[in-house]
């Protein structure tokens, strides 16, 4: 993915030290969400997804690279159809939750969601970040929000399926404290999971 969007070399030359790269959540809520600052100083807004996000979701999807789409949905997909976007924007709170990170214009720059599995007191998650904003702490902010929401629901585990070749996501999840395990029936996938009973998961590092 990094090769495909051609951003990795520039980023590695200009990346500030790790501590400064972390997105910081700001206490003030503005423009329909909680403001936070990306590592490169942009202000984004974190909020639950809304029914009127359909068109913004479709535009956000259109900005993803083909590789990001494959990493997110595991197959080729050229467009987010209105029907699917409608489903994604209307989350049944009993079944899950979804959050978006928007810019000041309301464009969706990151999206993350969880689906609760009541059989195991856990939830499956997935996320994607606008290619122009990867490596800036947006994914980390979104995952922390999912962890908080999962704990609020009393869940003990949050897991996601990741393509085995998606080293960026695997490393990203590991840095946030996730463990990995093979998926015997799907050798192309790795299951990453957060133990929500561990207080270190989701804590500031
Ligand atoms: C994986 C993904 C969600 C990460 O989101 P992100 O916003 O880039 O993540 P963050 O910026 O919070 O990254 C956290 C760490 O990874 C590093 N990182 C993330 N993307 C990077 C990139 N493209 N190049 C270099 N480093 C990167 C960050 O610098 C940061 O490092 P640190 O922990 O040492 O501070 C994003 O790359 C993405 O949308 N991938 C495609 C979809 C996908 O794979 N989804 C997973 C299916 S569940």
TrEMBL record:
Residues 44-201 form the N-acetyltransferase domain. Residues 1-36 are annotated as: Disordered. Keywords: Acyltransferase, Transferase. Residues 14-27 have a biased composition (Basic residues). Pfam families: Acetyltransf_1. CDD domains: NAT_SF (cd04301). It comes from the Bacteria. This is GNAT family N-acetyltransferase. The lineage of its organism: Bacteria, Pseudomonadati, Pseudomonadota, Gammaproteobacteria, Lysobacterales.
């Amino acid at each position: 993915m990094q090769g495909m969007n051609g951003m990795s070399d520039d980023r590695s030359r200009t990346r500030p030290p790790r501590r400064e790269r972390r997105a910081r959540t700001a206490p003030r809520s503005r423009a329909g969400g909680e403001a936070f600052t990306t590592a490169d100083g942009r202000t984004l807004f974190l909020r639950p997804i809304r029914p009127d996000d359909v068109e913004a979701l479709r535009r956000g999807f259109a900005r993803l690279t083909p590789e990001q789409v494959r990493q997110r949905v595991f197959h080729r997909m050229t467009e987010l159809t209105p029907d699917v976007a409608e489903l994604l924007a209307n989350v049944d709170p009993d079944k899950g939750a979804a959050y978006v990170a928007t810019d000041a214009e309301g464009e969706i720059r990151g999206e993350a969601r969880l689906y609760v599995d009541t059989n195991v007191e856990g939830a499956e998650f997935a996320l994607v970040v606008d290619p122009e904003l990867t490596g800036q702490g947006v994914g980390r902010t979104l995952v922390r929000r999912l962890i908080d929401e999962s704990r609020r629901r009393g869940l003990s585990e949050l897991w996601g399926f990741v393509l085995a070749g998606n080293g960026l996501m695997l490393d990203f999840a590991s840095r946030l404290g996730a463990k990995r395990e093979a998926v015997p029936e799907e050798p192309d996938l790795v299951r990453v999971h957060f133990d929500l009973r561990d207080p270190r998961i989701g804590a500031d590092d």
